Amino acid sequence: MNRIDESINEELVRLKTDGLKRKLKNIKSAQGPHVCLEADNTEQLLFCSNDYLGLANHPAVKEALCHGVKECGVGAGASRLVSGSMAPHSILEECLKDFFSTEAALLFNSGYNANLGIITALAGRGTEIFSDRSNHASIIDGCILSRARVRRYSTLESLERKLKESTNEKRLIITEGLFSMDGNFAALNELIELARKYGAKLILDDAHAIGAVGEYGRGTTEKLGLNAPDIIRVGTFGKAFGTFGAFVTGPKKLIELLISKARPFIYTTALPPALAFATLKALELVISGKDLRERLETNRAHMSEGLKRADINTLHSESHIIPIIIGSAEKSSAVSVALEEQGLFIQAIRPPTVPKGSARLRTTVTAAHTKADIEDALKIIKKTLGIDTIDGGIN
C-alpha cells in the first residue's frame, strides 16, 4: 500500500472515530413532505429539505422541463462562451433582471459556483474581504481562492472595528441573507450603512430566502423593505424554486466582468436549457405564490413554537430553518438515526459545517407540510429527546 492509500485509510478512521464520516441515504420518491427511503422501503416524514415552497414536484414545473427538452434537447453542449449560450438562458436572465429591478443578471451552474465566481472575479491580493463567521463553505472557499486578505467578523461592532482599521482601498463585505445553519437573518440595514460609510461593496448570498420570504419572494431585501440597488445578489434555484442552478444580479458592468473573469462560468458547460424553461415556470409560481409563503410562515411558526414550548434549543431562528442543537457530532448522528427509526427523516449537521460542540438537527419546514405532519414531527422529536410531552419538561 502506498502512502496516499495509507493516508486515505487513516483519515477515514479518524472521521469515523470523531463521528464525522458521512454516507448517502437514497430517496426513491420525489421530494415532498413524505418520502420513501430506498434502503428499507420505509416512508418517512421529511423535515430537512430545502424545497421550501414544494415546487420540486409541481406539475407545471415538470411540464415546463419536458417542454424544454422537446424544444432544446438535454445538454447545452459547451460553455456559454463557446457554443452553449441558448435563448432560454438569456430569457431567464432578463426575467431575473426585471424581477429584482437591477441592471443585469448572469446564470451559474450552482450557488457554490456563483460564489466562487463572483468573489474571485472581484477580489485579489490587493483586496480586503470582511466575511461573516457563519457564512457558507462556498463563500469561505471563494475567499481563500481569491488570495485576498480575509477578516472574519461575528458582530456588527467587530465588523466596524475591522473596517476602521483597514488600509486597503478595495473592500468587500460578504454575508448570507438568511443563514443556512442558524435560521436567522443578517442585520442587512446596518451592513448596508457600514458598506456605504467605509466605501465597501456588499455581496449578499440570499440563497435560502429568495422565493421563500418577501411579498413576492424577492428575499431578505424585500422582507426588510430595503431598496438597495448597489447590492450584489447571489441566489439559487435549487431551494424555493425547486429546480437547479444559480444567478448573480447587479450592475451591467459587473456582469460584463463576470463573463470575462468568473472561471466557474467560463470553464463550465452551461446549464441544460430545459432547466431554464422549468425555472421560468417556477419564477411565475414564486411571484404569484403569496399563499405558499403565507402557508410556509404558518408552518414555521407552528414548528418553532412547539419546539420552544418544549425548551428545545433552536438558537435564535426566525425562519423556516430551525436548528435543534444537540452538541456532539456522535450524539447528533445517534438522534438522527433514532428519529428515522420512528419515521422522521432529519439529517444531523456536524463539523466542519457548524462549529465543534454545536452539532444539530437542521430542521426545515415547507409550505407542503400539513399541520398533522408538524404535530407528528414534534411528537417524535420530543419523545426521542426524552421530553415530557405534557408539560414540556425534561424527563
Describe this structure in words.
This protein has 395 residues and is α/β, with parallel strands linked by helices. It folds into two domains: 19-53 and 290-384, Alpha-Beta Complex (Aspartate Aminotransferase, domain 1), CATH 3.90.1150; 59-287, Aspartate Aminotransferase, domain 2, CATH 3.40.640.10. The protein contains 15 helices and 13 strands. It has helices at 3-17, 59-72, 80-84, 87-99, 111-122, 137-146, 156-165, 188-197, 220-223, 252-261, 263-266, 273-287, 290-309, 329-341, 371-384, and strands at residues 34-36, 43-46, 104-108, 127-132, 149-153, 170-176, 201-205, 232-236, 246-250, 321-327, 344-345, 348-349, 359-364. Helix 8 (188-197) links the parallel strand 6 and strand 7. The model is unreliable at 390-395 (pLDDT under 50).
Rg over C-alpha atoms, rounded to the nearest angstrom: 22 Å
Number of helices: 15
Strand proportion: 15-25%
Order of helices and strands: HEEHHHEHEHEHEHEHEEHHHHEHEEEH
Structure summary, number of beta strands: 13
CATH topology of the largest domain: Aspartate Aminotransferase, domain 2
- pLDDT < 50 stretches: 390-395
Distance from N terminus to C terminus (CA atoms, Å) equals 51 Å
CATH architecture of the largest domain: 3-Layer(aba) Sandwich
Oligomer classification = single chain
CATH class (first level) name of the largest domain: Alpha Beta
